[in-house]
TrEMBL record:
This is Endonuclease/exonuclease/phosphatase domain-containing protein.
Amino acid sequence: MDFKTKTIKKDEEGHHLMVKRSIQEEHITIIYIHTPNIEASRYIQQILTDIKGEIDGNTIIVGDFSPTLTSMDRSSRQNINKATEILRDTVAKLDSIDIFRTLH
């Protein structure tokens, strides 16, 4: 396979990394986000808003998100909180989906 790295961007703290590559001439963007536990959803919202112009149909966003999107990913005791609402809203505004939950 033909892999070519086009761009690598990261923040100074190492909380997010964006890699633009082409694989067999197909352009993809992979964004990794590791959130601090405090204000995680607002942090994710800020990062994704800042890089919104870099996100397209060939973007994969992965990471360690403290809030969960679905009840399947929470213990039965946990309610939907503000962090979950912010994360859901941000994902919806980016016209994105949780591919794992879509497939499983």
